[in-house]
Amino acid sequence: MNHFDDKVALVAGGTGALGREVCIALLGAGARVITTYRQQQEFQNLIADAPSARGGKRGTLTGVDADITDPASAAALVNEHMRAGNIDILVNAVGAYAGGKNVWEEDLTTYERMLALNLKSGFVLARAVLPGMIRQNRGWIVNIASRAGYGHSAGAALYSASKAGALALFDSLADEVKPYAINVNSVVPSIFDTPANRRAMPSADPALWPKPAQIAQVILFLCSPESSVIHGAAIPVYGRT
After folding, report:
1. Whether the predicted pLDDT of 54 surpasses 80
2. For residue 57, what are the domain limits?
3. What is the CATH number of the domain that holds 173?
4. 164 with 150: CB under 8 angstroms?
């Protein structure tokens, strides 16, 4: 398969537990990957694990330290890289979790942080890349949602609300781009195997949790021509959690 050899993919949050595996999958498929990061060491770790560093395929990796919740920063990032051609793929893996409190115990700072990272980031990114995708009449957008977005998340209401908003945002966006050959979907994980989740749930059995690399393969498929009939979907990747 050479579907990704001529594709440019923007992976926002590409140094997180899931985002890095998405980058590695796209690089392994031959894409040119641009990823955002906030910690330089995390980006260096990604470079070391990229397929090219292991003698794999020749996808290229570029990293940009950028705040994707800032519209001006996101627009500047997209405009800079579109000088050499359009961005074909957007994967938004920016996000954060906060929980453990009832709504009446939460503070406005946490509320604003959840909305910024889990909802605003997707809006800002989609708004930046879609004009180029519409011009070329081609594109793939995948947002990382959460099972918590369906509610019933006592102790994590702010996180749940922000992810519910993201599901609604990208579902509506999918309807808006129906006149164009642009696929918009969400991937919906529950608990998956990350160092943070292992620390938070030391008594759980992580063998039952989906691995980030497995979820990344679903995302890779959603960014390929074979997925053209999947549009406006929220794909569950719960495994057996």
Report:
1. no
2. 8-236
3. 3.40.50.720
4. yes
- Say which residue, 44 or 193, is predicted with more confidence: 44
Mean pLDDT of the 40-53 span: 85
Quote the pTM value: 0.93
Residue 92 lies in a domain: yes
Position 32 in a domain: yes
Res 57: pLDDT: 57
Whether 3 is covered by a domain: the verdict is: no
The mean pLDDT of 7-12, rounded to a whole number, is 96
Q: Is residue 2 situated within a structural domain?
A: no
